[in-house]
Amino acid sequence: MKLKEMLKENGCYETFDNMGFGAENVIGKLNMVTDEHYAKYEWIDGKFIVHAVPPLEMLKAGYPWEEWYRQRDGVFQHHCLFLEKTDKCDMTWDGRDLPAEDQHPEAVKGYFWYLYNDEDPSLIFTR
C-alpha cells in the first residue's frame, strides 16, 4: 500500500517500531480507502515522536492531527487533536504562541487544539 511505502521511506515506520508501538499495530488495519486518506497527510518522523498532520482544509473539516510518542516513564501516548472540541476531547493544547525553538510541526502552530489520548495506537479512521 502507498502509505506503508511512504512511512518506510521517511523513517516513521521504523520509529513506530523503535518506540514500541509496532508499525503494524498503527497501520495494519489500512484498506484501500483509508490508505488513500492517510497518504494525504504530512508524516513527520521526530525519531521519538511521529506526527500525522492532514492538510489544512481537512483539519478545518474536522479531521484530526494524530501523534504517537512514549513518555519518559514508558507510557505510550496516541493523541488525536482537533481544531473543534469533540465528545472525546478531555484536554487542550495551545499552539498559538510557541517559542521559536518549539519542535512541533509548523502546520500545527498557531492554533488552539482539543485532544484526547487514545488507548488504541491504530489510526482512528481504520477502526
Q: Secondary-structure element sequence?
A: HHHHEEHEEEE
Number of domains: 1
Low-confidence sequence ranges:
none
Overall mean confidence score, pLDDT: 97
Strand coverage percent: 25-35%
| Main sheet strand line-up | 1-2-3-4-6-5
The count of DSSP E runs of length 2 or more, i.e. the number of strands, is: 6
Identify the overall geometry.
globular
Helix-residue proportion = 25-40%
Number of helices: 5
Which structural class best describes the helix and strand composition?
alpha+beta
Largest sheet: 6 strands, antiparallel
Distance between the termini: 17 Å
- Radius of gyration (CA) equals 14 Å
Characterise this structure.
The protein has helices spanning 2-10, 12-19, 23-27, 32-39, 56-60; strands at residues 42-45, 49-53, 65-70, 76-82, 91-94, 112-117. The protein is α+β, with helices and mostly antiparallel strands. It has one domain (2-81, 117-126). Strands 1-2-3-4-6-5 form a six-stranded antiparallel β-sheet. Helix 1 (2-10) runs parallel beside helix 4. The longest helix is centred in the first third of the chain and has 9 residues, at 2-10. The model has no long low-confidence stretch (mean pLDDT 97).
Q: Topology, pairings included?
A:
Elements (H helix, E strand, L loop, with lengths): L1 H9 L1 H8 L3 H5 L4 H8 L2 E4 L3 E5 L2 H5 L4 E6 L5 E7 L8 E4 L17 E6 L10
Helix pairs in contact: 1-4
